[in-house]
């Protein structure tokens, strides 16, 4: 009898299997139903093994066929894009590509879709990116592109969705796509998102990111689910020709005597608590333990308030506001993005400086209007927290000002990437402003552990 393959809620099911160790090693016997079951992602390996054995099989799992799709007009990829596509092809159409922001990852995906000619699901982190990808795909491939997310449920042969929506719907459509593209694929290792790739049959897989490495080693999960890292291009290799040349300037500012006193008192209270409880932040569960411990007693709640107070003082010191104003005046002819670590700081700056704020709370129509006004030059400055870290195309920005952020190398590289889109005569400039004699100085050092910040750096002020 022919082996039958079925798709069931993100798994691959076979009622019977040939007596082959390699094949049976991929499956487990389902004690409830008696069938053999494995994650849908093993579909390709199972089919190839069945073909290798010469065993007849009936594929009732797959719900896709080759797709007649081609570029609407010829595209000549840049050398780094061609090298990435070639490496991905040699790896059998599976793997990860790390390219700097602005280096054309979206176009690389377009070329991959045109090459493999399979129905494709593109997964992105935000609704803004979903709309952006839809426009690029439809323009280059000349086909209607569906969307799943943001209140839209329109699945087509080419579809763009968000990680949140894909995680909820993979069990229903995981057998409808032959190519899975994960943009900003460093999100995929999150426990709630892994099922997107685990539950998909897609034999072809492409992961795109500007910064693959994760502090928790999650890049190994990306490699397991999407394929190995097949190509990497560094920012420094592209600046000046494919990305705008740039300079990084770090400005360290002092707290006022009053701010320093209040900061030190709050920090001492917070540190006394975590040391007394033996809480360490150099282990993955350290922060979660602090949050749990700080809610159990009055002392803990006071320590949490002290943590927030010392952090607020360091992030919003009066000297930072003065520096920001001076930098904006110096670059009043340029378009600038001001990055902060949290929404509270964004709104505080917006009220003080009468500048527009863009956060994840900003409604989509307003967000589009702000970005359009920024692109036209009507708005020369945008204040934001983290919503512009990833993917949003803002080629007009020349100046970036990081007033605060996390210790993440990825976040810092992404923020640099926001101002590197190439434009004739453009030279980008990134300012990093941090408070001296606070924890922010060490945070700044941690997030700067990347070649993009260690070469050609401007002098600190």
Automatic annotation (TrEMBL):
Catalytic reactions on record: Couples ATP hydrolysis with the unwinding of duplex DNA by translocating in the 3'-5' direction; ATP + H2O = ADP + phosphate + H(+)
A GO molecular-function descriptor: hydrolase activity
Domain Helicase C-terminal: 320-461
Keywords annotated in UniProt: ATP-binding, Helicase, Hydrolase, Isomerase, Nucleotide-binding
Source organism (scientific name): Melittangium boletus DSM 14713
Record-linked InterPro entries: ATP-dep_DNA_Helicase (IPR050615), ERCC3_RAD25_C (IPR032438), Helicase/UvrB_N (IPR006935), Helicase_ATP-bd (IPR014001), Helicase_C-like (IPR001650), P-loop_NTPase (IPR027417), XPB_DRD (IPR040699)
PROSITE patterns (UniProt xref): HELICASE_ATP_BIND_1, HELICASE_CTER
Annotated protein name in UniProt: DNA 3'-5' helicase
Residues covered by the Helicase ATP-binding domain: 86-230
Domain of life: Bacteria
E.C. designation(s): 5.6.2.4
Family recorded in the similarity comment: Belongs to the helicase family. RAD25/XPB subfamily.
Pfam assignment, any one: ResIII
């Amino acid at each position: 009898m022919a082996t039958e393959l079925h798709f069931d809620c993100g798994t691959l099911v076979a009622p019977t299997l040939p007596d082959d160790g390699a094949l049976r090693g991929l499956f487990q016997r389902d004690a409830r139903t008696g069938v053999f079951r494995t994650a849908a992602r093993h579909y390709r390996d199972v089919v190839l093994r069945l073909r290798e054995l010469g065993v007849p099989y009936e594929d009732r799992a797959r719900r896709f066929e080759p797709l007649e799709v081609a570029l609407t007009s010829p595209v000549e990829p840049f050398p780094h894009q061609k090298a990435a596509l070639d490496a991905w092809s040699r790896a059998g159409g599976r793997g990860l590509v790390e390219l700097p922001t602005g280096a054309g990852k979206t176009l690389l995906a377009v070329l991959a879709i045109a090459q493999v000619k399979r129905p494709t699901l593109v997964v992105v982190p935000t609704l803004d990116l979903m709309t952006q990808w839809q426009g690029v795909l439809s323009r280059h491939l000349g086909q209607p592109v569906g969307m799943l997310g943001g209140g839209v449920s329109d699945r087509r042969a080419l579809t763009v969705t968000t990680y949140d929506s894909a995680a909820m719907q993979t069990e229903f459509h995981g057998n409808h796509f032959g190519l899975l593209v994960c943009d900003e694929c460093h999100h995929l290792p999150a426990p709630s998102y892994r099922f997107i790739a685990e539950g998909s049959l897609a034999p072809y897989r492409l992961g795109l990111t500007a910064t693959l490495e994760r502090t928790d080693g999650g890049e190994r999960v990306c490699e397991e689910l999407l394929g190995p890292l097949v190509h990497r291009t560094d920012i420094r290799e592209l600046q000046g020709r494919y990305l705008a040349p740039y300079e990084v300037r770090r400005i360290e500012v002092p707290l006022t005597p009053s701010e320093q006193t209040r900061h030190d008192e709050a920090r001492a209270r917070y540190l006394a608590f975590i040391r007394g409880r033996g809480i360490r932040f150099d282990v993955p569960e350290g922060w979660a333990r602090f949050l749990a411990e700080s809610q159990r007693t009055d002392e803990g709640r006071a320590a949490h308030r002290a943590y927030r107070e010392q952090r607020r003082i360091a992030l919003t010191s009066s000297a930072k506001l003065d520096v920001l104003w001076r930098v904006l005046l110096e670059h009043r002819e340029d378009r600038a993005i001001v990055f902060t670590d949290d929404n509270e700081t964004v709104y505080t700056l917006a009220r003080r400086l009468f500048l527009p704020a863009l956060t994840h709370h900003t409604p989509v129509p307003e967000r589009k209007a702000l970005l359009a006004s920024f692109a036209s030059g009507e708005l020369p400055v945008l204040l934001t927290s983290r919503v512009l870290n990833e993917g949003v195309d803002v080629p007009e920005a020349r100046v970036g000002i990081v007033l605060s952020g996390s210790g993440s190398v990825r976040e810092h590289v992404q923020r640099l990437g926001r101002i590197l889109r190439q434009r004739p005569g453009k030279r980008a400039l990134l300012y990093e402003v941090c408070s001296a004699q606070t924890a922010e100085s060490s945070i700044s050092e941690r997030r700067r552990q990347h070649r993009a910040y260690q070469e050609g750096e401007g002098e600190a002020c």
